[in-house]
Design a protein that fits this description.
By secondary structure, the chain is of the alpha/beta class. Helix content is 33%, strand content 28%. An eight-stranded mixed beta sheet has the order 8-9-10-7-11-12-13-14, covered by helices on one side. A six-stranded parallel beta sheet has the order 3-2-1-4-5-6, sandwiched between helices. The longest helix has 20 residues.
C-alpha cells in the first residue's frame, strides 16, 4: 500500500508556490512531484525553486502523468470547476482551492464528476485541520462558554491593483468570494448547519466592480453570525464565539503563520477588563501540511475529505444568498439543495 500521495499542481499561482506546496512538502504523507503552467518556462522556474521533479507546459500533460495520484487546483475561480472535472475524468483525486466555484449552480456538476469517477474531491479550507480551530470548536462543544449564540468575524486586506486576479469580477474576484467565504464556512461549522436566512450589504469598487466591502448577518437556528470582509481595508482578522457564559477569540484565525504559535483567548465574562481571560497557546504547525495529511488520509486510508462537495455547495449557496440580498435589500434564504 502506498504511504505517500503523489501530487501534481495545476498552475504557478502564488497561494500554491508560497503556502500550499511548501506546506505539503513538510507532510509525511504527501509528495509534490509535478507542476504545470501554460508557460513551460514558468513551470520550470517554479519546479527549480521548490525542488519539484517534473514541470509541464500544459495542464493536459500533467493530467496525463500516470505517476500523479492527486491534483491541487489553485487556478482562478472561474477555472476551478472545469479543471477539477477534467482532473477527475483523468482518474486524479482533487483538492480544489476555495471557493469551489463561482456560485452553487456552477459547482453542482462536481457531484456527478465525483460519483462517476469515484475519486475524492474536496475544497481547500485549511482551517478545518488547524489545531486552534479544532480546540475552539471542542471547547464550545464541551460547554466552556455556555450555549453558543453569536459569532463575530472580520477579515480584510488591502489590494487595489486592477491586474490582480482577486480584483477581476469575471474571474470571481471580490471580498466575499475570496475571504468572506471563510467567515461563512466557520459559522456553518460552529452552528452545525446552514443559516435559515441571510442579509447582506455590499459596496463595490466603481471601476473594478468587485465587492470591496461586504457585511452580512447569518440567522441560524439558535444564534446569529455577523461578519465584515474587505479587500480595501487595513490588514486584519479576528473571530469571536460568544456564548451565554463566556467567549472564545481566535487571534489569527485564517492566515495562521507556519512559524509562530497561535493563541486562543478564553474569557469567562467576569470582567470587561479582561481579568477573566485565559490564554491557550497552540504549538507551531503548518496548516497546509495538515491539510495535505488529511486529504492523503482520505485517499490512502478511506477517510472522509474534511470539506466535501456537498459542504462546499452549501457554502456557495450562502454566498449566493448574500449577493441576492445586497441586490434586493431583503432577507434571503440560501438554496441549499444539491
Amino acid at each position: 500500500m502506498a504511504t505517500k500521495l503523489r501530487w501534481g499542481v495545476l498552475s504557478t499561482a502564488n497561494i500554491g508556490l508560497k503556502k500550499v506546496i511548501p506546506g505539503m512538502q513538510k507532510s509525511g504523507r504527501c509528495s509534490v512531484d509535478a507542476i504545470a503552467s501554460r508557460s513551460l518556462e514558468k513551470a520550470r522556474q517554479a519546479a527549480t525553486r521548490l525542488g519539484i521533479a517534473r514541470a509541464y507546459g500544459s495542464y493536459e500533460e500533467l493530467l496525463a502523468d500516470p505517476e500523479i495520484d492527486a491534483i491541487y487546483n489553485p487556478l482562478p475561480n472561474q477555472l476551478h470547476v472545469p479543471w477539477t472535472i477534467k482532473a477527475a475524468q483523468a482518474g486524479k483525486h482533487v483538492l480544489c482551492e476555495k471557493p469551489i466555484g463561482l456560485n452553487a449552480e456552477d459547482a453542482k456538476p462536481l457531484l456527478a464528476a465525483r460519483d462517476s469517477t469515484r475519486v475524492k474531491i474536496g475544497e481547500a479550507f485549511m482551517i478545518r485541520t488547524h489545531p486552534q480551530w479544532l480546540r475552539a470548536l471542542a471547547l464550545i462543544g464541551e460547554g466552556r462558554i455556555g450555549t453558543l449564540r453569536s459569532i463575530v468575524g472580520f477579515f480584510s486586506y488591502r489590494n487595489t491593483d486592477p491586474a490582480n486576479i482577486r480584483n477581476q469580477i469575471d474571474s470571481g474576484g471580490g471580498a466575499l468570494l475570496d475571504i468572506g467565504c471563510y467567515c461563512i464556512h466557520a459559522s456553518r461549522w460552529a452552528f452545525g448547519g446552514p443559516p435559515k436566512r441571510v442579509v447582506g450589504l455590499i459596496d463595490r469598487d466603481p471601476q473594478m466592480r468587485i465587492d470591496r466591502l461586504t457585511s452580512a448577518i447569518l440567522d441560524f437556528h439558535g444564534g446569529q453570525s455577523i461578519f465584515t470582509c474587505s479587500t480595501q481595508l487595513v490588514l486584519h482578522q479576528r473571530v469571536q464565539f460568544l456564548g451565554t457564559f463566556g467567549r472564545i477569540e481566535l487571534q489569527i484565525p485564517f492566515n495562521a503563520p507556519p512559524d509562530h504559535p497561535t493563541r486562543l483567548f478564553i474569557d469567562d465574562g467576569s470582567s470587561v477588563l479582561g481579568t477573566g481571560i485565559v490564554t491557550e497557546t497552540l504549538p507551531i504547525c503548518d496548516q497546509y501540511a495538515l491539510q495535505g495529511d488529511a486529504f492523503a488520509a482520505a485517499v490512502l486510508d478511506g477517510a472522509d475529505v474534511p470539506v466535501s462537495i456537498e459542504d462546499a455547495i452549501e457554502n456557495m449557496s450562502v454566498i449566493d444568498a448574500i449577493f441576492r440580498s445586497a441586490e434586493t435589500g431583503n432577507w434571503e434564504t440560501p438554496r441549499t439543495s444539491t
